[in-house]
Amino acid sequence: MTRILPFLQFVAVATLASCLSVADKRAAGGYVQNPSGTASFTQYTGCNQPACGIPASGFTAAVSQLAFGSGPGLGPGDACGRCFAITANKDPYSPSFGGPFKTIVVKVTDLCPAQGNEEWCGQSQSNPTNQHGAAMHFDICEDTGGAAAFFPSGHNALTGTYTEVSCSQWSGSDGGQLWNGACIAGENAANWPAVGCGNKGTAP
Question: What is the mean pLDDT of residues 62-75?
Fold first, then answer.
C-alpha cells in the first residue's frame, strides 16, 4: 500500500499538469475560448482574404477578437478552422420579431477586430460580453451564402447561441493557402480547450 500511494500521487500530479498545459495554451494572451455560449450575428462581404490565410467555399464567418485568439496582422488564432452551429433567437433592434430563426454550421476563417467594431466585436478581458450581452460574435460571410441562409429578410443583426461542433457537420471545401503561416488546424482539433492553431499576441 505504501508503494502504491506515491505512484497514485505521481499519476494525479502528471494528469493535472497535462490538463493545465492545455488550458494555459488555450488561454495564452488572455483570450476567452469556450465551446458554447451566447452569441451575436451580423454579415459582411469581401471574405476572400481571411485572417486565417485559407478561404473556403462553404458557410464561413469572422469571429470577435477575444475568441479568435489573435490580433490584426498577427496571423491565425486558435479559432481558425473550427466549426460552430449557430442559432438565432432574437433581433435586438426588433424585439417583437418572433422569427422564423435558423441554425447553420459555419467554419471560422476570419477575424472581427475589436477596434472599430466595438458594438459587436468589442469583447475584452475586462468586459467579456459585447453591447448585446454576447460572449462571441459571428460576422457571417455573404459571399459564400451563409448570410442568406441564416438571416430572415429584413433582419440582418441577431443574437442567440453557438456550440462548437465537428467540422464533419460543415458543408464546404477549403481553398488554397494564401501565405506562409496560414492555419485552419482547428478543423481537425478536438473542441476547446484542445489546441489547434494556437493563440498569438494579447487579447483586447
Answer: 97
**What are the residues whose beta carbons fall under 8 Å from the beta carbon of 18, sequence distance 6 or more?**
none
Residues contacting 60, CB < 8 A, separation 6+: 47, 50, 106, 107, 108, 109, 110, 140, 141, 144, 146, 172
pLDDT by residue (tens digit) across 136-173? 999 999 999 999 999 999 999 999 999 999 999 999 99
Please tell me the distance from the alpha carbon of residue 132 to that of residue 120, in angstroms, as a whole number.
Answer: 7
Q: 471560422: which residue's cell?
A: 108
For residues 69 and 199, give the distance between their C-alpha atoms in angstroms, rounded to a whole number.
Answer: 5
Q: How far apart are CA 188 and CA 82, in angstroms?
A: 8
- Total Cβ atoms within 10 A of residue 113: 18
For strand 60-64 and strand 103-112, is the pairing parallel, antiparallel, or unpaired? parallel
pTM of the model: 0.87
> What sign does the dihedral 186-68-174-179 (CA atoms) show?
negative
Count the neighbouring beta carbons within 10 Å of the beta carbon of residue 45. 9
**Residue 28 confidence (pLDDT):** 76
> 115: closest CA among 158, 80, 79, 71?
71
Of the pLDDT bands very low, low, confident and very high (cuts 50, 70, 90), residue 9 is very low
